[in-house]
Amino acid sequence: MSGGTCDRPSPRSDPRHAPNPPASSQFRALTSLDLSQNRHLKTLPESLTRHTHALDTLILTGCALEALPTSLGRLSSLTCLHCQLNRLTVLPPSIGRLRQLTELDASGNPKLIDLPEQLAQGCVRLRTLRLGECSALRLPDNLGEAEELREVTVAARQVAVAASEVRELLESGRIRVMLT
Length: 180
Hints:
13% strand, Leucine-rich repeat, LRR (right-handed beta-alpha superhelix), 180 residues, alpha/beta, seven-stranded parallel beta sheet
């Protein structure tokens, strides 16, 4: 994870290195989960969000995810979500319930076309938003509502077609913008 503020889980907290898969009750104390590079993972089970309320870091890089579950918003402790290099087309509106989220990396999802307006409205602590290589993505008109936002990575084309309010925000200097 280049440049991210999220730490990779230690092998002890990474279920791929666990000697026995933990029972659902043991997931309650899990704080970091790295499922990256699971190329056969197309969906996350809804049950994952029922048993991982302490989860603060979720790394889903390089899977084959086509969608994130609508129950994602249940992860009320989540501060870091890395879902780059998947096959996502949309992010669920429930992402707006992730009030602790500080970092979202959804870059490398070329079919991602829309971000829900709930992202800017509900993710009040969001500081870093990475959307590079999402060439079809339309930035939400209300992006400026994310008052803590300090860093955005987007494709140059995304800025060119963004609403005037979003272009003004990205050009204001309040946010560090990196173009891909």
